[in-house]
Structures are given as C-alpha cells and as structure tokens.
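new request in #modeling-help
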Amino acid sequence: MSEGGGLQSLDSALTVLHAMARFPGPVTLTELARSVNMPASKVHRYLASFATAGLVGQTSRSGKYDLGPAALQLGLAAMARQDIINRTADALPDLCAQTGLTALLSVWGNAGPTVVRWERAAGFIVTTLGLGTTMPLIGSATGQVFLAHSPVAVIKAKLTAEGAAYKDSVVQDLIAQVHSAGFGCVAGDLIPGLAAVSAPVLNSQNHIEAAVTLISTDSAIVSKDCPQVSALKAFCAGLSVQMPV
Amino acid sequence: MSEGGGLQSLDSALTVLHAMARFPGPVTLTELARSVNMPASKVHRYLASFATAGLVGQTSRSGKYDLGPAALQLGLAAMARQDIINRTADALPDLCAQTGLTALLSVWGNAGPTVVRWERAAGFIVTTLGLGTTMPLIGSATGQVFLAHSPVAVIKAKLTAEGAAYKDSVVQDLIAQVHSAGFGCVAGDLIPGLAAVSAPVLNSQNHIEAAVTLISTDSAIVSKDCPQVSALKAFCAGLSVQMPV
DNA sequence: GGTAATGATTCCGTATTGTGCAACGAATTT
DNA sequence: AAATTCGTTGCACAATACGGAATCATTACC
C-alpha cells in the first residue's frame, strides 16, 4: 500500500470521481463500478455524497450519472488561480540544475517572443541577450516554438512585420518539423558558437503560453536523443495543462 | 441529521473542498479548518487524500494549500459535456476570422463571469486577460451581458460581493440598455485603450449560458451599426436555442 | 399482459477505519 | 534564545464504511 496519510474511503471515492471524468458522457452505476473494480453498493454511496455536493447529478430519465455543475465551478475556480507563467518561472531553477545549462523563459509580447526570465547555469555564457529581448520567429529556437504553436493569423502578421521574405513552403516545413520533434532548435544561427533548444508550455486550450529554452556552447544538444532535450520536454509537458489521457 | 444516504466522511471532505474553492487563492490549513469548523487534523487528512488525487496541491515554500491540476481537469471534463458551450467554442475561430478581432468566451463561475476560451486575432495582445480571468459585472462588456440576463438574486449577491456601490437606478438603466441593444459594450473602462462588445448565448429557457466578447483597440466597434457587432449578434443568435416564434 | 432480466437502492452485522486530542517538529518572530 | 504559530503524526476508542444479498423500479422479451 502506497499510503499518503489520507483517508482510505476518500481515496476510493476520488478514484470513482476521476473515473467518471474519463467517461465522455453519462454512465450507469454498474458500468462505473466495474471500471474501478468496486462493488456497486460502495460506488452508489459515494455517488450519493457527490450528488449532494453537486459534483455529480443523475439524468432523471435513465438514472445514469454524470458530472454536475459543482464540478464545472470547481474547475473554473482552479482555472482562475492557474498562473502557468509564474509556475514555470518558479520551476526554472530546477530545470537549470537538472541539465546544467542556462535556461530562459519567453512569452509572446507585442513585438513577438520576448525573454522575461533568465536562469544562469554555472558555466557562464557571455551574450548580448538580455531581459526584454525579442526573438526572431525563424532564426531562433524560441521563435520556432511560437511559430509552430500560434494561430496562423498572428504568425502571418508577425512574419511580414519582420520583413524577411521566407518561402511559404519553407515555413510550413519548419512548423511540421517542430511539431513532430516536439521542440525547436538552432545551432549558431542566431549567435555564432551558441546552440539552443526550446519547447512550449501549453494551456488548457492547447495554445502556447510560454517557451522554455536551453542554451549551450555545445551544439550536440541539438538532438532528439540528447538527455537534456528529453528533460526539457518532460519539464514543459509537466507544466502544461494536459487533458486526461 | 439531514442524511443524503452517502458517507459522512465524504460529505465532510467535500465541504472542505468546496470551502477551498471559495477562497480566492492559497489558504493555510488552520484558516481553512476554521472556516468549516473542523479540527485541523481532520482537514489535514482530507487534504492529504485530495493531494494524492491531484485535486489540491501545496505551495512548496509557504505550505499553503490550493486547488490542483486535477480540479482543472475535472472542470474541463464537466465543460466538455455542456453542449452549448462546446458548440460555441468550436465556432469561435470562425467569428474571429470573420471579424478580424480577438474573441473570448465566458461562462458564469462562482467568482462571476469567467473567461474559458480566447481566440487571438493578429495584431495586439492583452496580457492581463487570460484563461480564468473573472470580469466585473458593471465595468466590462462581458459582465454587462451576464448582468442583464441572470436572475436578480444571483446578480445582487455578486454586486454586493464586488463591493462597489452602484445606485440601483443606474444598474437598472444599464440592464435596460443592454436588453434593447442586444449587446453590452465598454470603451476603455476596464483596460485603457481597449474597447469591447459582448453578446449572450441563451438556452431554451432564455437563460444565459455563455457570453461571447470581441475586443479591439478601435473604439468604433462600440456601435449598433458596426458590421462586427452585427456579426457578433448573428453568431450568438445562431448558437442560442431559440423558442419557436 | 405476463415474465424475465437488468439496474438502482437499501438493509444489516462485523471489524475496519476515521476521529479528536495531544504531543512533536519546523519555521518564523520578538 | 525563547516564544509563538502552524503543519504533521501517534494513539485508543467507537463511530462508521464495507460487502453481500434482498428489494424495488424499469425496461425487454415472448
């Protein structure tokens, strides 16, 4: 038993609630009970309590159970407190320590991807990049991530504003590449001698909220198999609001 | 005891969860315990179970408790079952493309009108408006729409909670105005330099289910004759469940 | 229309398990 | 350094959740 110090009945009940959330719609009691390997009577009592709390309701005709209005309210309350940017910023030192690389956090500002946070690793890197720097969409790892995860209208406006003329097919290829790899990367494109990899932090709409970028003088980090890239992707995935699997 | 046939411990625990949702942010254990008149040790064990389920988490530094990611997912699951919201959210990109403006979708949460979706258009970004933002009833276009289409009891409670003292006649005038125009609007009231128009999505009982809002830097959109306002009204009318005339 | 079958709800004795109080540890303040 | 505040954990007792079967309600089938 991997105990957490809580109540066993509560743990069971929450398992049921979680199971209910995984169903796409109303469920019968027995079906729900079978899905969590519990006797129906037990589940029924849980549901009775959930029902008085408004977390679940039952369709009057069929007697099936479904999530209730309180579940929605709870979610809205949770959504109101979610500050993905700050959570990411707080966790940035961990990533930095784990990978041994300098990490930076960028969000979409009026002028495009904008650096809002630095976390320097031990091996210092001299760079002209400072807080508030805006990154190019194509020529930077950070920009590529925003490029691949932002609405097309936003991207098109920014690309024309950047002035540089890129063939549309080239841009499309780059986007597809970032999507399939799960990260953006450059090696010396922006600053000679410097390589960078970047991954997105997504919100509940699967829209990009921020990009986290690792910088190194070693261009070997620009690889799918690099452990530091895996760490970066795991880091961002953990901070993103993920739909139940 | 007014029993509901459920488990007493579960009822207590859900009371705690509900209390937690009513706080605007992280809470200390003792504060939470006091608010529900329970011994701290009892509440602590509940929270331990909630924590393993991911419904609550505690801030690593201060040890305060707050709603966790599972609460958000539960809310998203509940939201996914609301047909009207689904249809509106799915159609939102169309409205965005049609008007060229940023559109957002709000529903009524415990804290008031809450933004649950936003669809960005090219151009500008509003960094202060994110998912989960709650809108004021008077000072926002979104809020005005809820103000004019919600039960008076709900509105009164929220207005007093907002603290601001408005003359009743002013509120009544505003409601009448929103009703006759068919949309709510502000120009720079909430965020300087930003104008917004908002229209309701109604269910079969003519109660408001959600509000759709368009925002722009051009205050000219705040007009009955503006084509984008017409598009918004048509959009919402099409999504509302209409009574046969 | 009667009967079978599926599913929701309730009953009941047992022992599992949640409860309150108080002690402990940690962290911050005076 | 002492004191205060807060989060966490033992402990003994009895309250209460558990599981299986019985009951009620509703739909399907002949």
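bot summary: The mean pLDDT of chain B is 90.
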